[in-house]
Model the fold of this input.
Amino acid sequence: MHSRKFSKVRQFAAVLLLTLSAFGQQSAPAPQIPSSGFADLDQYRASRIAIFTDDFGQLVRYREANAALPPAGADRVVFFGDSITDRWHLGESFPGKAYVNRGIGGQTTPQMLIRFRQDVIDLHPKVVIILAGTNDIAGNTGPMRLEDIEANYSSMAELARAHEIKLIYSSVLPVHHYTPKSQDLFAQRSPQKILELNRWLKNYCAPESTSGLSNNCAYLDYFSAMADDKGEMKKDLADDGLHPNAAGYKIMAPLAEAAIEKALGAAKP
Done:
């Protein structure tokens, strides 16, 4: 009697183990990203799940290119940022200059902070010029408070200062909604938040910040040169309302060059 009961118990245990094993082998459901309220942004974020989970900072993007760079010269400058930097053909705008492009489309400041050592510090530039923040406002990697963006700005500035790299912080560019393709990009980026973030950056980079100390950075004001009388990007400077076209970069280049020359002059003993 006891033997039959024990046999049934063993049979039940075996069935239970097989059931649990089969359940464990089922593929997990795909992670769901909460809706942002913008269909295009939701689609973009869903397409980036693999990057967000496997290489959030996208360190692999420039790893080989960094290893192949020659030793840094006296005037190496790194342009660091998102797609606005990534799309900028520096060789055309600054021929013969030792300027290195380390922009990655779609990135936000937390992603840039992760790769700041690899793509800036380890390249030993004299100057880094950072253009960031528009994708944070849009929420490319999730909702971001202005305070969080500002904290990331501060962290990158402190890292640059610790490694004696002159820092130029670029204003967030204006956006417009004058063309059909610009509507969604404009809606995702609050003009008011752009103004507030630029105001904070300008104050942070002032010779004496609100703390009474110098943060050892310069403010590069692209915004004023590219905004129309409504505070939006001039229509002829960005076809999609956000990314500068050739005419937009033509305005940005001399402003960047002047800021770099000033920073390099300050870096010389």
User: Anything to note?
Assistant: The two ends are 96 Å apart (CA to CA). The domain at 39-267 is CATH 3.40.50.1110 (Rossmann fold).
